[in-house]
From TrEMBL:
Keywords: Glycosyltransferase, Membrane, Transferase, Transmembrane, Transmembrane helix. It is found in: Membrane. The lineage of its organism: Eukaryota, Viridiplantae, Streptophyta, Embryophyta, Tracheophyta. GO terms for cellular component: membrane. InterPro entries: HPAT-like (IPR056508), HPAT/SRGT1-like (IPR044845). This is Hydroxyproline O-arabinosyltransferase-like domain-containing protein. Residues 1-274 form the Hydroxyproline O-arabinosyltransferase-like domain. The keyword Coiled coil does not apply. It is a single-pass membrane protein. One of its GO terms (molecular function) is glycosyltransferase activity.
Length: 276
């Protein structure tokens, strides 16, 4: 991600400023010499209940309180995002800008969400179908949202019914609720991000999110759910570096997947000492 950020930051159409990797391990790592990094302390032992993502809002609280942030707006993104073109400030008129996730469904879970978003805050549709990433939001707004995001996340996790219903997206719901509690609403940009292999074209997207595995046979037919003769899946590299010069997909594989692999290859080819 950082390679492509640097490549696009100063190009026409970009309004990107500084870059900070927020590391919530509480200790430095070898990548700090290469990537600007803020080291946040993790939650006290056991508080995340094995759901490590609960450390994210707490890390943002620390960063917003302790760091000297020059910019007035913040783009929250994740390590498995690749920037595919210069990103402007998509937020407007006090609204944030966010990608809508089909699986964040406030209306479906209204009875649960009312535990955290009371009736007096308005209709449940005031909660946008978003997570915290990708989101562009004003710094002052995020300074208000972040402590609430942390507290709502922890409270949701402690509630067995909510924890069971939301599972791994609990912290995403917590951000959406917290943003709405502070009356920070969002322009929903479907074209903010694509997610191969389901999104097959780059189109007008700014970000590729490689969260899903991409499996194909050698004829270019997707074999999702079954390991393909050709595959790219970040989970293959949980404990090792992706090698340089990954093989390109076979003919017939969608452009989004081809572009993803080409961009990974370009980055690894140009990052010094890759894999060492």
């Amino acid at each position: 991600m950082y390679y492509w950020f640097k490549k696009f930051r100063d190009q026409p159409g970009s309004e990107m400023g500084g870059f900070t990797r927020i590391l919530h391990s509480g200790k430095s790592d070898p990548f700090m010499d290469e990537i600007p990094t803020f080291v946040a302390q993790p939650l006290p032992s056991g508080m995340d209940q094995g759901y490590i993502v609960l450390n994210r809002p707490w890390a943002f609280v620390q960063w917003l309180q302790q760091a000297d942030i020059k910019e007035d707006y913040i783009l929250m993104a994740e390590p498995d995002h690749i920037i595919v073109k210069p990103i402007p400030n998509l937020s407007r008129d006090g609204l944030g800008a966010a990608f809508p996730f089909f699986y964040i469904e406030p209306k479906k879970y209204e009875s649960l969400l009312r535990k955290f978003f009371p009736d007096e805050k308005g209709p449940i549709t005031n909660i946008d179908p978003i997570g915290n990433s990708p989101v562009i939001v004003g710094k002052e707004a995020l300074q208000k949202i972040a402590p609430t995001w942390m507290n709502v996340s922890l409270t949701m996790k402690k509630d067995p019914e909510t924890d069971k219903a939301f599972g791994w997206v609990l912290e995403m719901y917590a951000y959406a609720v917290s943003s709405a509690l502070h009356d920070v609403h969002n322009i929903l940009y479907k074209e903010f991000m694509i997610q191969p292999p389901w999104d097959t074209e780059i189109g007008k997207a700014y970000i590729i999110h490689y969260t899903y595995g991409c499996d194909y046979d050698l004829k270019g037919k997707m074999t999702y759910g079954k390991i393909g003769e050709w595959r790219f899946d970040k989970r293959s590299y949980d404990n090792k570096w992706p090698p340089r010069n990954l093989p390109l997909p076979p003919p017939g594989v969608p452009d989004s997947v081809v572009t993803l692999v080409k961009m990974v290859n370009e980055a690894t080819a140009n990052i010094p000492n890759w894999g060492s």
